């Protein structure tokens, strides 16, 4: 591995050393490079003195880490200026920042290996620099603890059942990490947010951005949107019921027919009206099939009438941010099994069933969810950010990790 050594006279040295090399051997290499006798050298890592008999790996030194070298008989003031606190922050952040800034080689290496830290050193926010230094120290500590646990497993009793379970879990996790790293390298787009399909339509003459969802059984319009389009007066309340999917939502009734305009052509359309203020209009499978629509992802268009009319899907910049919440809510209402409308004779029975079953989407997270949270927190992320990421990707640990890293 390669380490960077900064001397008291601001000389920067890069050394290729073995992780299991002793500190004394590193000092011998530095003696050749700097002409400073081994006995007069004092090496500091994270503000702590490195003893001659200690190994680099035992001290937690990693590739591209920075080590300070001062003379044993030198004044303590420069050491204090460039040393580190136990939490990884600099004792004198301003002196540390200026010291690194003056060395162009170190700055070039930082911009390649750690752009965030390099930007903090170039910037003027010392609090941000201290926070990043603490975060890097914490990440190194977590990684060191994991490595120590792995080393302990190597020497564990082969007949210890609990130890064997931990070894099995470590092997499984290693395979998962390798698979995740391969995905980041070869398939990074899998971790990006997928923009759902929206098109411009007119409903009863009112322009809307329609969410095209072939996984929803029925076309849905919200009560507020139906009122805006002047269609609420046509609401048939005999078709009240419950829309069940991942969650559930109340169906207020049905509008049997109204004109929608796609491109330059008008088509008849029927809607279920939901009491969902956060979801305006969803173009579902019933109308997609009725009007022989084709979702053409190669050309990124929606074709209607077997292809005679087509409209482009909206780009992400053309979709209002508020609609991204609509996607989630509409999925809860319809995507898993799609909305189920009650017939007039089944209204009371479905209402009683809905009241008894409640909303499954609001179930409390169990130990499996907490295990995912703990695993991602160990990677160095804040618990609140981890919980939000897991909820955003419906508990998908890999996608949440990609989102946090990205």
From TrEMBL:
Query: Where does the record place the UBA domain?
Result: 367-406
The terms describing its cellular component in GO are: cytoplasm
Which keywords does this Swiss-Prot/TrEMBL entry list? Aspartyl protease, Cytoplasm, Hydrolase, Protease, Protein transport, Transport
Q: Name one GO biological process term.
A: proteolysis
Pfam families recorded for this chain?
Asp_protease (PF09668), Ddi2_HDD (PF24669), UBA (PF00627), ubiquitin (PF00240)
Q: Which residue windows does the record flag with biased composition (Low complexity)?
A: 333-344
One GO molecular function term of this record is: aspartic-type endopeptidase activity
Its main localization is cytoplasm
The record's family statement is: Belongs to the DDI1 family.
Q: Where in the cell is it found?
A: Cytoplasm
SUPFAM superfamilies to which the protein is assigned, alphabetical: Acid proteases, UBA-like, Ubiquitin-like
Q: Give the source species.
A: Cucumis sativus
Which domain of life, per UniProt? Answer: Eukaryota
Classification via PROSITE patterns: UBA (PS50030), UBIQUITIN_2 (PS50053)
Q: What is this protein called?
A: DNA damage-inducible protein 1
* Domain Ubiquitin-like residue range list: 1-70
- List the residue ranges of the region (Disordered): 332-362
């Amino acid at each position: 591995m390669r380490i960077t050594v900064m001397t008291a006279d601001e000389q920067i040295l890069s050394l290729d050393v073995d992780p299991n090399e002793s500190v004394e051997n590193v000092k011998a290499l530095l003696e050749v490079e700097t002409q400073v006798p081994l006995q007069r050298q004092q090496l500091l890592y994270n503000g702590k003195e490195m003893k001659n008999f200690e190994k680099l790996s035992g001290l937690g030194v990693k590739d591209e880490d920075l080590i300070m070298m001062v003379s044993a008989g030198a004044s303590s003031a420069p050491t204090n200026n460039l040393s580190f606190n136990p939490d990884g922050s600099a004792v004198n952040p301003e002196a540390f920042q200026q010291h690194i800034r003056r060395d162009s080689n170190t700055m070039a290496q930082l911009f390649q290996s750690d752009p965030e830290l390099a930007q903090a050193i170039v910037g003027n926010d010392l609090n941000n620099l201290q926070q990043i230094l603490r975060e890097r120290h914490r990440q190194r500590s977590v990684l060191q603890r994991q490595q120590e646990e792995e080393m302990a497993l190597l020497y564990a009793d082969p007949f210890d059942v609990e130890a064997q379970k931990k070894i099995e879990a470590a092997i499984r996790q290693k395979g998962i990490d390798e698979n995740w790293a391969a995905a980041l390298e070869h398939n990074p787009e899998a971790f990006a947010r997928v923009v759902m399909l929206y098109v411009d339509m007119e409903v009863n003459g009112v322009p809307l951005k329609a969410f095209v969802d072939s996984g929803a059984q029925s076309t849905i319009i919200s009560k507020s949107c139906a009122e805006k389009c002047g269609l609420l007066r046509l609401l048939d309340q005999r078709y009240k019921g419950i829309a069940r999917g991942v969650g559930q939502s109340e169906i207020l009734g049905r509008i049997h027919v109204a004109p929608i305009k796609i491109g330059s052509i008008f088509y008849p359309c029927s809607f279920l009206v939901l009491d969902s203020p956060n979801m305006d209009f969803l173009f579902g499978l019933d109308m997609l099939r009725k009007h022989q629509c084709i979702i053409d992802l190669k050309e990124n268009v929606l074709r209607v009438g077997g292809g005679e009319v087509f409209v482009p899907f909206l780009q992400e910049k053309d979709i209002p941010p508020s609609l991204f919440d609509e996607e989630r809510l509409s999925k809860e209402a319809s995507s898993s099994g799609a909305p189920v409308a009650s017939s007039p004779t089944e209204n009371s029975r479905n209402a009683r069933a809905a009241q008894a079953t409640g909303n499954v989407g609001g179930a409390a997270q169990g130990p499996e969810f907490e295990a995912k949270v703990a695993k991602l927190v160990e990677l160095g992320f804040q618990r609140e950010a981890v919980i939000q990421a897991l909820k955003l990707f419906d508990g998908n640990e890999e996608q949440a990790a990609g989102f946090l890293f990205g």
